[in-house]
Here is the input.
Amino acid sequence: MMAAANADYNNPCDAFRSVLIDAGLLPGDIVPDGEIRRCGTSNKPRSRNGWHFLYADPPAGAYGDWSTSLSETWSGNGSLSDDDRRRLHEEIERQKAERTAKLEADQAAASEKAKAYLARLPAATDANPYLKHKGVNSCPGLLADGNLLVVPVLSPKDNQPMSYQTVNPESSKLFLKGGQTKGGYFVIKGDGDPLLICEGIATGVSLHQATGHTTLVAFSSRNLAGVAKMAWERYPDRKIILAADNDLKTAKKIGNNPGIEAATDAARSVNGLLAIPGQPGDFNDVHVAMGLDAVKDSIDGAKPVASETENAEDWPGPLPLPDGLPPVADFTFKLLPETLSPWAADIVERMQCPPDFVAVAIMAALACMIGRRIGIRPQASTDWTVSPNQWAILIGRPGVLKSPAMEAALAPVKRLAALSVEQYQAELAEYERTKVAEKLRAEAAEKTARAALKKNPNADISGILDFEKTEAPTMARYMANDTTAAALGELHRQNPNGLLVFRDELVSLLKMLDREENADARGFYLTGWNGDSGYTFDRITRGMNLHIPAVCLSVLGSTQPARIAQYVKGVVNGSGDDGLLQRFGLTVWPDTGGTWRDVDRWPDSEAKHTAFMVFERLAKLDPFFGGANQDTGPDGRPEGIPYMRFDMGGLDLFREWRKDLETRLRSGDMHPALESHLSKYRKLVPGLALICHLADGHSAPVGRPAVLQALAWAEYLETHARRLYASVTAPEAATARAIIAKIRSGALPSVLTVRDIYRPQWAGLTDLDTIKTGVKLLVDREWMVEARKSSGGRPTFEYRLNLRTEGLR
Here is the structure.
């Protein structure tokens, strides 16, 4: 939802504050810097359930409440346009990336500074003022800088110092500016089980002196969970005890006890035990007041967290689960050439299939018909030439009529192919008759030549043997199905205009091309997408050096969501980074719901006839009749393919669109896979404009209406591309939601193992690896807590549902 501004637009901070207060939030300072800030709410003033952030230009932001799932956007003028919403999102991501980069750089510099500083310090002695004040001895690893106690902060990655804490005699503690403390710890080595974890250094030394156990100092309550998880992952068989600080004084002020709450959460997350001082303060205070035996008794009496009475307030606020597949734009028949739109609509109505499938297949078929007959030069003066061949993939679950839609769209191409077979057979019969006559002429010529040489060995017989020979006919081909790359190359050599590769299940082709032994085939396909580059096969059965001057391939096929999601995962994770998948500019993954109607009528014969004539016209296209130009070489002979350009209206539109595209591609805000995909739109858009222009029977130049259609295609297709690359995380979110649904229905307990989920083989929960990814997402988003299950053997893990997820989706 969008919250309206209720204060002066020129004072966005006050306006935004008013909106926050009206929504029940208790904000602190309002700073329009895009930083997310947590705050209390009117229901729970001392909590940090509220959140908000604000940007100054445009004055827009967002706010919410984790505990109630409230999430709103806000604009200073009462509305937020799609462009502003996109800019807001992009600005958030940009600032997040900048903050992350700066933080990492500062932390790296601080780490080097810490190592240099610590390397020159002597070990701390028992005479250190702070240690004497706390009544504890020094231990290995503690350092001193004059009267300061210096405690190294070790990195969980490599156990090397990444910062340090200084403590003066008055107990004032400071960390190195810019140094990382999250996840950092200090270790006091001791005997085996159990492993103790606490907040402060004095507490840690008291615990070690009382028990002799290895003790990890986490430096703060906020760090307990991270250190506990690190210890648990390194030592899965060791018992872990969280030694809490009993912040009773703080609890009286703010209503909650941060020391006990943080230690409880940390213990719960690792299935550990919890020890709480029986008096206000920490275990060093117990040591000073009651002696080391009292400390040891408390540790020996540590209890499982599971035995404590729990309620939702004891749990952290869960983060929202990611949405499923992002929405996609609906198809409109206005995207198609006017001559073909009625035919496509007729197919869709009678077949009751998504219009996207029929339309995209039609565009791929048209691209195949045009091929290298004519190209387009998208700029006014350069020789950059685009071939209009297209790669298309239809994505949908089984039963949504992908194959019938493609077959219907390809009907005109198959008709032309059938006519081509008839023509070829007739030409072949005539060729066979001519071949017999040529053989007889050759024999007679040879006889005459022999007689001439017999009379005069030096006689010129070239005129006798030089007679016209008829070339064997070739069959015009438009499509190829299941064929090797070399065989496809031979077909292409005979049909230099180009071919359409049609594969009903396309991912099988992509996976075949991914195999190392098929690197040459992959290279051939990649070259074929360009439409203007040559390729030579050096290893084929019939000979060497089969050269194709310009490979031009269109590709059309379909697949299922699960198969393409698995393939995309490999692309997103770095394999297949040469952009093979990203070349499928005509990728559609439509929603397939809606109401079905029984449509039983004859096809629209007029629309069908018109469409078939369009394909026949393009198959016989004379580009020069339509006003195309062609370059000439130094010898005056034609060079390259004929081409058209945009008219001024179309060129202005294309320039404006491309400027926006290039800016977005250079922003660094996109995933590299999506960025690569959208970069191929430089070829997609001019190619689609040319297809629409020619299909409607227009001559040069390519006009503004065709460019508008192509740009509308690009906007529509980008939403489908974003769905394609988001499909990697969508299955994880779907699995996570399925697990939560089973828990809420009572089919699963709130404390469970992966095996509990897998064993019943529920729909959508039948694959062990898929279940594990869903569970991991729930843990990462704090919907569940992972804990080691003590079994005496191989470590197993159980998962407990966060009580605060009740009612969340």
User: Anything to note?
Assistant: Residues 411-455 form the longest helix (45 residues). The two ends are 17 Å apart (CA to CA). The chain has five domains: 2-80, 111-314, 333-417+476-591+606-726, 425-459, 730-805. Residues 1-9 have pLDDT under 50 and may be disordered.
